[in-house]
Amino acid sequence: MSQNFVNPDQVRAWFSRAMSDMYKSEVPLYDTLLDLVADVNAKTLAEQPDLAAQLARTGEIERLDIERHGAIRVGTAEELSNMRRVFAVMGMQPVGYYDLSPAGVPVHSTAFRATHEAALQTSPFRVFTSLLRLELIDDAALREKAARILAARQIFTARALELAGQFETQGGLNDADAREFVAEALHTFRWHSEATVSLDDYRELHGLHRLIADVVAFKGPHINHLTPRTLDIDEAQAEMPRRGVSAKAVIEGPPPRKCPILLRQTSFKALEESVWFAGADGKAAVGSHTARFGEIEQRGVALTRKGRALYDQLLDLARSRISGAPNESNADAYMQNLQDCFATFPDDYAQLHDQGLAYFRYFLTGKEGAAPDSDLRTLIDQGYIRFEPLVYEDFLPVSAAGIFQSNLGDKAQAEYAQNASQTAFEQALGAAVQDELTLYQDTQDRSLAACLQALGAHAG
Ligand code: OOG
Ligand code: NI
Known about the structure:
Layout: H1 8-26, H2 28-47, H3 49-58, H4 60-64, E1 68-74, H5 77-89, E2 93-99, E3 107-113, H6 117-122, E4 126-132, H7 140-151, H8 158-170, H9 175-187, E5 194-198, H10 199-208, H11 210-216, E6 226-228, H12 233-242, E7 263-268, E8 272-278, E9 285-290, E10 294-299, H13 305-320, H14 331-341, H15 349-354, E11 360-364, H16 376-381, E12 385-389, H17 397-407, H18 422-429, H19 436-455
Parallel strand pairs: 1-4, 5-8
Antiparallel strand pairs: 1-6, 2-3, 3-4, 7-10, 8-9, 11-12
Helix pairs in contact: 1-2, 1-9, 2-12, 5-8, 5-18, 8-9, 10-11, 13-14
Bound molecules: 2-oxoadipic acid (OOG) and nickel (II) ion.
């Protein structure tokens, strides 16, 4: 009786809202961040009528205020595969594979998100989900201890898993079950101020890598940030210190441009929070842990394989020209160098479109009377069809590594011998990750097909 089922897109919208409310109460600075972004966005829209018109034409404006992503880190294959089942109830599928080991972070990751443009329009909520790679730890005794501690915890409530099972067998959840599911699933992402280990064990895990302590020592994968989307990240970055928020030294990703590409992100440092550790004598010991931080992002057009190759090439060039990690003292030089290196990346939507560097959505202009056998080029040139940038919905591994690092402290990073292992990740996940480029191509193709059909034309 599928007519009684709540649309998974609706469940995701509820969940995203509930998560934001929870995070607001847990991390008051997040509320400051939301206000800051809302102010910057209002100012940007008022000052840039062309941008406002473009966002209105594409519908982007409607989702801007509800748009956010979060991030979590899980410890075992079972946790990851159950996470996949829980996100599926909300219409979120694993998209993309990210290997963070080259950056000295012992995890690999995917992004759970909606995949169809209509679903993304209802709720673009995404969760960057990382799996700890214990196999990258050399110390066998400590590796086994961490595995033992992880095996003893259950990060989902029994009811959340039961409802996920019901969703799988019935193909959906009714209103009451869906609402209960949202409340139950939320528990998994809460902050717990009691650790599951002793202070000594915590220190030992922390000594290996702060991230390992963050994953292993707690009851669950607390959401570690929730990121709103700004229309002007340079302005947001400048505004952060004015509101008492200490931002990361530089914005990750591409330099500022007229036509934004991919993703630019900045963050502020993790908060130090007090934690109770289990004491050997039954008494608790108080300590602290830093896990949660704030982040802001600006999203631009999704790049094709060709565009992405050019982006990666220019980013490598920029990084090879500057030594060491960017910090407060060389932030201006870092940005200038980045801008110099990206000078050859076309900064014009028509060029990005015509050179096949980025994905677009096609829209009818309202003009009628196209010749039936016109091809796309003609229809564009004659003003029947216009194209608008298709927004990048994913993440960037180099940027993610920069975000991880700025929040893991500035100590020398570990180096890991092993590298990407998408097969091992998918085995743990219990499914293949979807290819993000295919999803963008599908959206572009659907928009073109709809235009051509309406005009009575065919793809030329
Ligand atoms: C995830 C960091 C990556 C992003 O926006 O690139 C990320 C983490 O710290 O767990 O969220
Ligand atoms: Ni993030």
